[in-house]
Design goal:
- The chain is mainly alpha-helical and 93 residues long.
- Helix content is 72%, strand content 0%.
- The protein has 6 helices and no strands.
- Helix 1 packs across helix 3.
- The chain is globular and about 40 Å long.
- This is HTH cro/C1-type domain-containing protein.
C-alpha cells in the first residue's frame, strides 16, 4: 500500500465540497468562516472550489471553526482512501 499516490486535484475537490457543505449547513458566509477560522478569504474560496489541496493545519483550523463532528474528519479520510484504493473501497461498500 505504500507509495500509492493520488491526484491532488481530486482530493482537493472532495475536501472543498465537504468544507462548503459544512459551512452552508451552518448558514455561514465565507466572511464568517474567515473570522472564525482566522484564515484568508482567498484561501477559503480556493479550498472550497477545489483549486488547492489544503495543508493539514489549515484544514484543521476550518474544521474547528465550523465545530465539525469527528465524522466529518473521517469523511475526509475516507475520501482520501477511496482515491488511493478505489477497488478496496468499492468492495467494502
Amino acid at each position: 500500500m505504500s507509495g500509492v499516490r493520488i491526484n491532488e486535484r481530486d482530493l482537493a475537490a472532495e475536501i472543498g465540497k465537504i468544507i462548503r457543505r459544512e459551512r452552508l449547513k451552518r448558514q455561514w458566509t465565507v466572511e464568517r468562516l474567515v473570522v472564525e477560522s482566522e484564515r484568508d478569504r482567498n484561501t477559503i474560496m480556493r479550498i472550497e472550489s477545489g483549486a488547492i489541496c489544503s495543508r493539514l493545519p489549515v484544514l484543521m483550523d476550518l474544521l474547528w471553526a465550523l465545530d465539525c463532528e469527528q465524522d466529518v474528519f473521517l469523511e475526509i479520510v475516507a475520501a482520501d482512501a477511496a482515491l488511493r484504493m478505489p477497488h478496496v473501497v468499492a468492495e467494502a461498500a
